[in-house]
Amino acid sequence: MKFELKRVSGKSILFVMAAEAEYGPFLRSRIDPLMTGVGPVEAGIALTRAFAQLEAQDDLPDLVVSLGSAGSATLEQTEVYQVSSVSYRDMDASPLGFEKGRTPFLDLPATLELPLRIPAIAEASLSTGGNIVSGTDAYERIGTDMVDMETFAVLRACQIYGRPLIGLRGISDGQIELQRISDWTEYLHVIDRKLSYAVDGLFTALEDGVFWF
């Protein structure tokens, strides 16, 4: 498992990404993230394993940043948004009387807030799940600004280890029906560049003392 904590102004940051296709030259020049694989199961397993390794070395990160692409039918394509809240669209125990999105017997709401904010980056709500979302009707049924496949799982691992999380997502698709993988990858090179600027914004805010946790 290859990754490297980024150390800025006395803080250590673990960056987490899902797929090599999202990790372009701009991000490669700045960070060496943990690559989890696609989906909530792979993300949860990989990050928990990394946390266990870092805990054994007494080197848990001060902050985790989950970043990559997302889909949205309403947000501006290729723009980057930071996650204001995240929910888990796969969880539905409503036939047993539980609120949709709420995990039975777990004392957590269906929607979890992410309180940390990088200055000057727009915010959006996010839904995580194991399916590809395509089409206006599908997005309307979910009801959040954007969708991905990892952030909720990353957040839960962070909660177990007591680490704060920031989520950054660039909108790669959602305005048209997805029919092939190139519909997702077409603008990833643009998102790579814009995500790198968001990462720069985090570093600058830490160095200038206007962002702290």
Automatic annotation (TrEMBL):
A single GO BP: nucleoside metabolic process
Q: What terms describe the molecular function in GO for this protein?
A: catalytic activity
- Annotated signal sequence is none
What Pfam family is a match, any one? PNP_UDP_1
Domain Nucleoside phosphorylase: residue ranges: 35-173
- Stored Gene3D superfamilies: Nucleoside phosphorylase domain
Lineage, top-rank taxon, reads Bacteria
Query: What is the protein's given name?
Result: Adenosylhomocysteine nucleosidase
